[in-house]
Structure formats: C-alpha cells, structure tokens
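Ticket #4471: structure export looks truncated?
Reporter: QA, pipeline team
Priority: medium

Steps to reproduce: submit the single chain below to the structure queue and open the exported record.
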Amino acid sequence: MPRTLADLSSKMRDIDFAMLSTHAQGGAIGARPMSNNREVDYDGDSYYFTHDSTTMVQDIQRDPQVGLSFLGKSGLLGQRPFFVAVEGNADLIRDKAAFAEHWTKDIDRWFENGIDTPGLVLIKVHASRVHYWDGEDEGELTV
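Actual output as written to the record:
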C-alpha cells in the first residue's frame, strides 16, 4: 500500500541524522551528516544549521539542488529496513527569527553562542521527490 507523507513523517521522527549531499565544484558529489533535530514533523521541508564559511554553503550557492538520505532505526541490526531519499532545493536563511523558530537545545553543542553565533546559517531543504523503502514496500511521493 502506498505511503503518505504523514506516514513517512511518523517513521522519520526517531531519525536524528541525515546525509546532506550537494553538487561540489567540478561536478563531484559532496555529502556530510547533518542533525535532523529529531522529533520534527516532516512536511517536505527540513532545516539544518551550519556555518556560513563551509564548503557546503558554497556548493548550495552554486547549485541549490540537493539530496538527503535517512536510515531509520529499523534498518539496523538485521531488522526490517527503513530508508528515505529526498531530492529537493536548498535555501540559505540568515534570519535570527527563523533561527529561533528552528533552534533546539541539542544544537548548542555545535554553536555555543546559540542564534547569535557569528556566521550562522540555516539551510532549508524543500523536497520535490521523496523515495522510500520500508521493508519490502517501496514508493515515491511528489511533494
């Protein structure tokens, strides 16, 4: 039976990290782990904090098309696998009100000055396609 975005969102709530892939200079693919901030209701948009000076930000400025990969807990230790691959476009947000809206205390670990961290940027990824594998079930949603 096909899954809905709400179905996927409920399964993604326990996933803390995603791999964010960008188009690096020269055509290579660059990927790095980013905190998904757990317990977020996924509606096709996801948000990640980083520093403005990162290669990832430079990649997004050059080409905003990105990919996200998620592995659910059930995909570990021989249990029924749950994977999600997202294709979308990234926006770079430099607005403290938006920072505050998406901030969680767990992020303090990486940004000790909170939303006042110099060079802080929020990456918003808006999905266009979401592909999932849930055990033997597989499907794709257009967002």
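Status: closed, not a bug. The export was complete when the record was re-opened. Leaving a note from the reviewer for reference: The chain has one domain: 5-138.
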